[in-house]
Amino acid sequence: MENTKQKHPKALYTLFATEMWERFSYYGMRSLLTLYLTALLVEGGFGLDREQALAIYATFTGLVYLTPILGGWISDKFFGQRKTVFIGGLVMAVGQFLIASSAFMMNSLDPATRQFLFNFGLGVLIIGNGFFKPNISTVVGDFYDNNDPRKDSAFNIFYLGINLGAILGTFIAGGLGESKSWGWGYGFLAAGIGMLLSVIWLKWRETTLEDKGLPPDSPKDKKVLDGKDWATIFIWVVGLIAAVFVLMYFWGMLSETVKTVITYSIFTVIVLGLAYAIGKGTNGADEWSRMAVIIVLAVFNIVFWAGFEQAGGTFSLFAENNTDRMIFGWEMPATWFQNVNSFSILLLAPLFSAMWLWLDKKGWNPRTPMKFAFGLFLGGIAFFVMTQAQHLADTGIKVSPWWLVSVYVILTLGELMLSPIGLSMITKLAPVKLVSIVMGLWMASFAAGNYMAGMLESILNKYHFPLYPFIMWVMFITGGIIVLISPLLNKAMKGIH
C-alpha cells in the first residue's frame, strides 16, 4: 500500500508531455521575439530600437499571464479544465502560424499589413494562452490531496516538462530562427508545430486523466470529451480568432488617448470581476485567511519575476551585443543562452523533488513562505553577479559567457524555490470551487512581473538608476520582509503546509 501511494498517477506524465510541447512552442517563440523585433529590415526583422522592442516584449509577456484570469473563470463556470485546454491549445497554434506568416511573407506584404499580421498573431497567442495556462496546472493538482507530500514532488516533475520543452524550443525554434540558412519564419513555424503536437498528445492520452477536468455537469462515468464537446471547442476556436481579428482591425483606427482609456477600463473590469468572483466564492474565516496568504505571496512573486524575465529581454540583448559567443570559430546563437535555465532545471528539479520528500519525512521541510524568501535571496545574488558583468561590458569588451551562465544557474535555484511551490500552494490554499480563478490570479502576478521586466529599464533610465543593482536590492529587501512576516503567514495558512 505504501509503495502504491508513493507512485504518481499516469495522468501526471500525460500532462507532463502536453505542457512540454506547449512550452516548446512558447519559449521557442519567446527566445526569438526581441531579436526578431530589433533585427534590421534587410535581415527580415522589424528594425525597432531597444526601447520599442522591450515595450512590445513587456506587453506581450504581461498579457500572456493576465488572460489566464479569463480562462480560469470560463473553465470553472462552464467548460471544465479539459475542454478549455483544448480550446487554448488550438488557438495558440494558429497564433504561431500567423507570426510565422509575417516572416515568410515579408517581401510580398507592405510594412503596415505585415505589422498587422504579426500583431494579430501575438493577440491570438495571448488569448489562447489564457485558456491553456491556468487549467493544465489545475488538473495536475486535482490528483493529490492538499497535504499529500507527493504534491510538491508532482509539481516539480511537471515543472521538469516545462523546462524540457523550453530547451527543445529554444534549440530548435530559436536555432532555426537565428540561422541565416533558414530564417525567422522557420523558427516560428516550428513553434506552431510544437503546439499542435501538444494538442494531439493530450487527445491521444485523454483516458489517463480519468474523470478530472471534465465539464461541471458531466456524468460520473464519463472519461473523454464527446462529439458535442468537440463541436463547442471548434466553435470557440473560430470565434476567439475572429474576435481578435476584429479587435486588432479597429484598434489600429483609434487614437492613442482612446486606446489608453480602453486599456485601463478593461484592466479595471478584470480586477473588479476577479475581486467579485473571489469575494463571492470565498466563505468562512479559514478560507479568507488562506486567500490573504495567496494575495501577499502573489505580490512578492511579482518582484522575483520582474528580475527573472530579464532573460528574454535585456539578458537576450546582452548575450547578442556584449557576450563573446565565438567557440572554435563558430558563433553560438544568442537565444541558446536561455537554455542554461532549462538545462539547470532538468538537472536540479529531480533533486529538489526528492529533497522536499526527504525533508518532509525528517520534519525539516520549510513552509511555503520561507521557500519564497530563499528564492528571492538567490535572485538577489544572481543580480549581484549580473551587475559585475555589466560593469565589465561597460568598459567596451565582450565578456565571458560564463557570467551569463552563472546568473542563469543561480536564478534557476531561486525559481525552483518559488515557482513550482507557488503552483502547488494555489491548489492547496484556494477554495475548491475557485481553484482555476485563483490560479488566474496567480498568473496575474506573473503578468505584472513580466510587464515590469520589460518596462523597468526605460523607467529607471529617466532617473539615471542602473537596472541590475536596483533589482538586486529589491530582491534582498523583499526576501527579508518575508522572513519577518513568515510566522504570521504560516498561522494564516490554517494547518496547510
Describe the structure.
The chain has a single domain (9-492), classed as Growth Hormone, Chain: A, CATH 1.20.1250.20. The longest helix is centred in the first third of the chain and has 37 residues, at 68-104. Helices cover 78% and strands 1% of the residues. The chain is globular, with a radius of gyration of 22 Å. The chain has a two-stranded antiparallel ribbon with strand order 1-2. The chain has helices at 2-6, 10-38, 50-66, 68-104, 111-142, 150-178, 184-204, 227-251, 256-281, 284-308, 314-322, 339-362, 368-393, 401-429, 435-461, 467-492, and strands at residues 326-327, 330-331.
* Average pLDDT over all residues: 88
- The percent range for helix content is over 70%
Class per helix and strand makeup: mainly alpha
CATH domain topology: Growth Hormone, Chain: A
Order of helices and strands: HHHHHHHHHHHEEHHHHH
CATH superfamily: MFS general substrate transporter like domains
| Largest sheet strand order | 1-2
Distance between the termini: 24 Å
Tell me the count of domains. 1
- Outline, from the CA principal axes? globular
Rg, please? Answer: 22 Å
Share of β-strand residues: under 5%
Low-pLDDT runs of 5+ residues are: none
> Number of DSSP helices?
16
CATH hierarchy, class: Mainly Alpha
CATH architecture: Up-down Bundle
Total number of strands: 2
- Main sheet record: 2 strands, antiparallel
